[in-house]
Design goal:
By secondary structure, this protein is of the alpha/beta class. It contains 13 helices and 19 strands.
Length: 391
């Protein structure tokens, strides 16, 4: 059974889907053949020689893909890349199905069986495959460092002969995996931290990290399936904005992480809030996208100065920590891969073969396309709606 690891083609993508230590495990322990495209690990500081020493074959794209049973990627493939996939091969990657409907249709039309890392269920058994969480952890860490580096002030308290500098204030909006790591990082840097989330269940986690949890007098809660946030009613959203407005004016750094699966990110930092903040303050909008982010002024992958506040809209923070984000992603994707492998034969004569069991509680939900069809219901509905709109 051959597994192919291809080099990412996106200009801002430095990660690689497998690292040498996982190659060594897949080859040596599980008997898989692994082929890696030359240069695939260069952006994340993994040399071709390391892959070779781990047991992989390294070559050009054509030889890497030739005869591959499974192809591993990080970012969604381009339409051209979909066209170059071997017939019958399985693709595993982040596929961003809601944002890449054309790619999803192309995968289905090509008969490609694809598994989206975003669709891994949030269950105890699937934790080691949860790439969204592993990458969000790193993103939350980097968001605070980015904000601190941009800020023209320091975060920890300084007591010197020249006087005392009070600790900086950081406000984190959204206390999921990224938000909790942002809180922990800001606290390590010596900041005073406040956080808000529409899910009251995270209050204990926020406070355990040494931050204050913001609560409205009237309850503002919205927790959806799998622990994700869901959209608030208009009345609840207004109360949410009032609560944020009461605290944001003296924040040095604001980190926003709020996303709702399948919907545009909610606007949490309005123009009026930006006007209330001190000049030189920083907003790091981790939800920035072409469809809009958590901050009214954010633009994806741009730096905007609005009302004296610097607004950053990074869309791929894990790529800036490519060595360790690749290491974590590789563990996630390798664990998922092994769910698809069974050993045939007896004793030392076993041979690994691909075994796609769609009744499996992880493989079934994470399968995006198979047999010419879009299996993920929500994505299929969007494609149908898009066709009706265009028709």
């Amino acid at each position: 059974m051959k597994v192919a690891v291809v080099k990412e083609t996106g200009a801002d993508e430095r990660r690689v889907a497998l690292v040498p230590s996982l190659v060594r495990e897949l080859v040596g322990k599980h008997g898989l053949a692994v082929a890696v495209e030359a240069g695939a690990g260069s952006g994340s500081s993994y040399a071709d020689e390391e892959f070779t020493e781990a047991g992989a074959t390294v070559g050009d794209l054509a030889s890497t893909l030739a005869g591959a049973d499974v192809i591993l990627k990080v970012a969604p493939p381009s339409l051209a890349e979909v066209g170059g996939l071997p017939d019958g091969a399985v693709l595993i990657a982040f596929l961003s199905p809601f944002e890449n409907l054309e790619t999803v249709k192309a995968l289905a039309d090509a008969g490609t069986t694809s598994f989206a890392m975003e669709l891994i269920p949030r269950t105890t058994r699937a934790q080691r495959m949860d790439a969204l969480s592993s990458q969000a952890n790193l993103a939350g860490y980097k968001a605070v460092l980015l904000g601190a580096d941009t800020l023209g002030r320091i975060l920890p308290m300084f007591m010197t002969a020249a006087g005392t500098i009070r600790p900086g204030k950081v406000l984190v909006l959204g206390a999921g995996v990224a938000g909790l790591q942002a809180i922990a990082t800001a606290r390590r840097l010596g900041a005073k931290v406040e956080a808000f989330d529409v899910r009251p269940a995270v209050k204990e986690q926020v406070e355990s990290l040494g931050a204050s949890f913001l609560e409205a007098e009237d309850e503002v809660t919205a927790e959806g399936e799998g622990g994700y946030a869901k959209a608030l009613s208009d009345e609840q959203h207004q109360k949410e904005l009032e609560l944020i407005a009461a605290h944001i004016h003296d924040a040095d750094i604001v980190v926003t992480t709020a996303r709702i699966p399948g919907r545009a990110a909610p606007e949490l930092v309005t123009e009026d809030m930006l006007k209330s903040m001190r000049d030189g303050s920083v907003v790091v909008d981790m939800a920035a996208s072409p469809a809009g982010g958590n901050c009214a002024a954010s633009r994806p992958d741009e730096t905007v100065v609005a009302h004296g506040v610097t607004v950053l809209g990074p869309t791929n923070l894990p790529s800036s920590l490519a060595h360790h984000s690749s290491q974590m992603y590789a563990r996630n994707i390798a664990t998922l891969l092994l769910e698809m492998v069974k050993q045939e034969g007896e004793d030392d004569a076993t041979t690994p073969v691909l075994d796609l069991d769609f009744d499996n509680d992880i493989l079934g939900p994470s399968c995006l396309t198979h047999g010419g069809d879009v299996r993920h219901e929500a994505t299929r509905d969007r494609i149908t709606a898009q066709g009706a709109t265009h028709g």
